[in-house]
Amino acid sequence: MFSNSNLKLFIFYLALAALFTPFLVDRTVYFPFIALKATSFRILVEIMAIVWVMWLLSNRDSSRPFLSPLAKAVIIYGIVILLSALFGLDAFFSFFSGNERLEGVFGIWHFILFFLILSTTFSSEEIKKLLKYQVYIGLFYSLVSPIKNLGLANQFNLGTRLSGLTGNPSYFAAYLIFNAFLSLYFFFEECQNSSNNKKNLFFLLSFCLESVLVFMSGVRGAMIGYGGGLLIILLGILLLDDKELLIKNLKRLSLGILCAGVIFLVLIFSFRGSPFIKNHFVLGRLASISINDPTARSRLYSIGTAWRAFLEKPLLGWGPENYQAAYIKHFNPEVIRYLPTDFYFDRAHNKIMEVLTTTGLIGLISYLSIFILSIGFCLRLLRDKNSDSQHKLTGLLFLGLLAAYFVQNLFLFDFHESYLMFFLVLAFLSALSQEINPHILPKKQFGGFLKRSDTGTLNVGEVDYAQKLFKYLILTGVICAVFYSLSIWVIYPYLVSRRIILVGRYAVAGEEQKASQTLKSILLHPSFLKDDVIIGVKDTVFDVYNKIKPSTINKIVTMLLEEIPSVVAQRPSHYPLLVSEVQLRLLSAEWDKTALEKARLAGEKLIQIAPQFPSSYLVNAYVYLASKDYQQALEATNTALNFNSNLAEAHYLLGVIYENLNDSEKSYAEYLQALYNGFAFNNLNTIVKLLNLFQKYQNYEAMALLYEQAITLKIPTPDDYLVLIKLFGKIGNQEKVNFYTTKLNQIISNN
Question: What value does the CA radius of gyration of the chain take, rounded to a whole number of Å?
Fold first, then answer.
């Protein structure tokens, strides 16, 4: 066997590799920001598990208990979520989750295993090395976002807000919070232990940069969490004994920062209505923090929904990943007043309420116990009179970090990057808690060769072959389990995700046989992702519908529809799956005379499952429209508008309906309302038709807005810019005239 030191080193490097997984993005898979990260992390952790078992079986000798109280709490939480999954609404989905999240019990247990391996293998000093590497990694990662926004990484196509390689500003901000506080921790440590000003400056600059980026992300929940965590640290420093010069200096600095922060916030909220603050993205987002903000109101309604769902299943909840079903059943339509389109949640956007709903009271208690033990340990470091200033600052920094993470999670949920950082921090606290615990009892040697006397025990030099064989059997069993897990539950689902995208690519390339064969293979062997295959292929094909031959569309849609009944029977309340069924049946109506009736039946199921969702009625309106039942289409669309009169898609549908009823006045008014409410017209033929309609009514403003949408669907030409210059000139928008004149000159100069 390998030596203990080599095994530990191998585990360390695998753990270090795991810290790089947030960089991984694969645009060739369904959900490119999720699949490769999760898959790579699981591969690394399962390999770590094999090496860990080898290390445990190779004469591990430790003077500390194998599991700390914190580690036991984490294991108990893992057991509770497993029980919740088994007794929940959909055990299979609870265990494996789907492509969009790739979490579930299976995913969470990988993070728990990651934590257990680190906390039982390494000392706090060794884990601290990982934390320091994470600061370097996090700083480089943080720089990716502003670089991308400067236009140097357009290949990622991640949008305009800072999001790094997470694909989501909220995820990015949460990751930044961890890295910022870790940088601050090492800044304090270097100030105490080193006279190297360059190192001190590096960690301080890292903290400052990542702090600025938290606010530049515009994520208000992260701003509140960060502010709360930093406030705890600053107040804590003021309460520390000032025997050391460092503490005295930190007290003065903390007092200055607190005073400056209070003045800054007073000014921001006093002048929140001023044009300067309103037009400044960061200051505007900060000043808009209010309980009456639409996002805040929707989150409060979501909390109410989660509470009602909890009361229905109070002990072990609905099961992990089953919040979606609970949300639909107990949905409060008031949310639609504040979020007319983005109201559909598969997460509570409040970690505490999500845990309460999905794992019940038992799950919440076990989850909170992790924080209670972690925070309790940090407070013990602060209160212990025998602790030196380094331990006190350690306790204070990690207390602030845990508080920041906990508070920001009141507005969000966990994901790959946050789980990774949280369990890494827990591993450090777990190891540290054992090393400074004065009540540790010596632990007997684990593993190794026993020695008996002539009376039945092993003599020196003799080997217990039974024990040795037992160890090899354990290791063989672990290797077999890992091989099965990696091949069936980790790597193959990733390949399925890639093939979902391949179906669309083959279809666009005109390779009908390859597209159908690929789809057939993943429908026959979908791993745990069959509903994802149906929804994913449908979305992929719909995105490039105009580029695919009709015969290929026919074959793909037919294959998907053949599988839908069995999948719907397994997951009858999976709302996106039912929506996909209606959409596919509407498409198949071009060659299947029975499709519209089947679509109508599927649409009725949607209303039965989610009668409070306007989208349920809009989907049915499309069915009625295809059936030329315009009266019912009107009724369904108006029912959707009763939830929120500003639903852009509903106004678009009314425009189509009135156009079919030859009522041009009403059709014009509804199309116009859809445009002003932000409806995205993604068909050039439709845009050309509406441009002619708006020209008839001489509405040049609407024509200009619509033409701006048109140039996003094709490569703009000089003539396109000339049209836009003329249209914006007619309505007196000189800023837009100048903008498109510049664009026109750029094209001319490039040619």
Answer: 30
